[in-house]
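Hi V.,

Quick status before I head out on leave. The structure for the redesign project is tokenized and pasted below; the design run finished overnight.
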């Protein structure tokens, strides 16, 4: 008889088809009499806990498989056995991490866009590796290093110092750690594992194996028994628990074997190849909440001109590019660092206009806090492109709504200017949204509401579904 367990990967931005195929497979297998091992798992690539959702589901799956097939397991025994001995020289990190298509690009400049005291947004420019190309709307994936503060905390917790520069790792199974050759302790901690990754149930079980103190065991067991990824602290890491409970005698080799492999991070490119085909820019927010530091954003923030980093261009969804015909108008909805791809879109239109092509005027609806604090690119490029006739600007300032015609958030500005939005809709414009998931939901609801003013709510939903694949594209994060 057939046994099954299904985990579905999808993106909630595609609401019509989200999890449709995994749910169909799951229901069909059950209907046909197959034996269910575990409830349907679902991961949302458009959210901020995709990997955590899978890790939690996977841990439950291994527990079920162990019971079903009488397999005896013991916590960290499932981890590759890593032996460590002190010994030195750097390794090819990208190859070891199985990212062979990433290559070294060069930092040209890195500057702060926001006022002092405001949440930091930065602009960074790179020279691409030879032969690497891109389109406006694509992503640049970068291979970061952990923040130096994370590395310092690891070395302190395991009583290493930077003077111990050489260790040798040997693994009994597949691993993406640098094995069989000398490597620095700080290098392993910095570049090969996700130190700040949210702690998993498997991690907690591993910590329990190396805990003899009754109070610590009781506390860890309580955390394990009440573990809920959605309701728990999404920023608690394995390192946080090791620092909180110093009597856990976890070896460094087990610690690094317990952590996920360092992975590439994707950022929307904020430039157009018509500006410069060999260079790209990124526009990004720097994430920092107490001890929690965004790995990639802090890495990028600390780069300087002349630095080299591993990178690769990744294509975006087919619909998330400027129309090939520049006479098709665009309506752009964004907030915060969601500005990134739209700077590239508008830069492309500006270059086309300067080359003498007929370019339709587009409109940018943009939400931020204050006009003199975080209205990105407003005083230079956006002002210039507005004078050129490429774009009309419709901002919303959450902390100064009186300076944006009484509109606090971007969806408020869209609704206030719904006559304009409706005119664009009738002209066949393409609509784009980039920003956090909650902002994207609010914009979508406002857009459908505008359509519904004329066609009614039910018909508006149907119209939106019809145009979604060709005229309404989204790039949502968080």
């Amino acid at each position: 008889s057939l046994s099954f367990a299904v985990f579905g990967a999808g993106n909630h931005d595609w609401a019509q088809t989200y999890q449709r195929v995994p749910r169909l497979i799951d229901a069909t297998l059950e209907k046909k009499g197959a034996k269910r091992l575990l409830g349907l798992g679902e991961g949302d690539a458009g959210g901020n806990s995709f990997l955590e959702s899978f890790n939690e589901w996977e841990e439950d799956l291994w527990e079920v498989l162990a019971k079903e097939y009488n397999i005896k397991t013991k916590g960290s025994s499932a981890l590759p056995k890593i032996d460590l001995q002190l010994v030195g020289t750097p390794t090819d990190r990208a190859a070891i991490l199985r990212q062979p298509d990433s290559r070294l690009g060069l930092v040209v400049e890195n500057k702060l866009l926001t006022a002092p005291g405001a949440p930091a947004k930065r602009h960074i420019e790179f020279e691409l590796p030879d032969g690497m190309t891109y389109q406006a709307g694509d992503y640049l994936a970068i291979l970061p290093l952990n923040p130096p503060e994370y590395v310092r905390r690891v070395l302190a917790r395991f009583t290493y110092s930077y003077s111990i520069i050489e260790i040798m790792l040997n693994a009994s199974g597949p691993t993406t750690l640098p094995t069989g050759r000398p490597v620095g302790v700080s290098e392993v901690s910095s570049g090969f594992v996700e130190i700040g990754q949210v702690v998993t149930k498997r991690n907690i079980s591993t910590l329990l194996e190396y805990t003899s103190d009754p109070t610590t065991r009781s506390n860890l067991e309580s955390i394990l028994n009440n573990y809920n990824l959605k309701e728990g602290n999404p920023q608690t890491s394995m390192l946080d628990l090791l620092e909180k409970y110093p009597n856990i005698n976890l070896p460094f080799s087990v610690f690094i074997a317990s952590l996920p492999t360092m992975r590439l991070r994707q950022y929307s490119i904020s430039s157009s190849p018509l500006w410069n085909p060999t260079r790209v820019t990124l526009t990004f927010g720097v994430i920092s909440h107490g001890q929690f530091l965004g790995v990639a954003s802090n890495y990028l923030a600390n780069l300087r001109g002349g630095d080299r980093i591993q990178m690769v261009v990744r294509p975006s969804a087919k619909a998330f590019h400027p129309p090939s015909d520049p006479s098709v108008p665009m309506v752009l909805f964004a907030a915060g660092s969601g500005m990134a791809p739209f700077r590239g879109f508008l830069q492309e239109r500006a270059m086309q206009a300067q080359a003498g092509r007929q370019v339709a005027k587009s409109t940018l609806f943009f939400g931020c806090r204050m006009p003199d604090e975080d209205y990105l690119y407003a005083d230079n490029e956006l002002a210039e492109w507005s004078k050129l006739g490429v774009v009309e600007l419709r901002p919303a300032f959450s902390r100064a709504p009186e300076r944006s015609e009484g509109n606090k958030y971007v969806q408020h500005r869209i609704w206030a200017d719904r006559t304009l939005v409706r005119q664009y809709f009738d002209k066949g414009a393409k609509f784009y949204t980039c920003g956090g998931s909650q902002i994207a939901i609010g914009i979508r609801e406002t857009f459908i509401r505008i359509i519904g003013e004329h066609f009614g709510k039910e018909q508006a939903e149907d119209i939106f579904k019809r145009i979604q694949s060709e005229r309404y594209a989204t790039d949502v994060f968080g």
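Above is the designed sequence. The mean pLDDT is 90.

G. will cover questions while I'm gone.

Best,
W.
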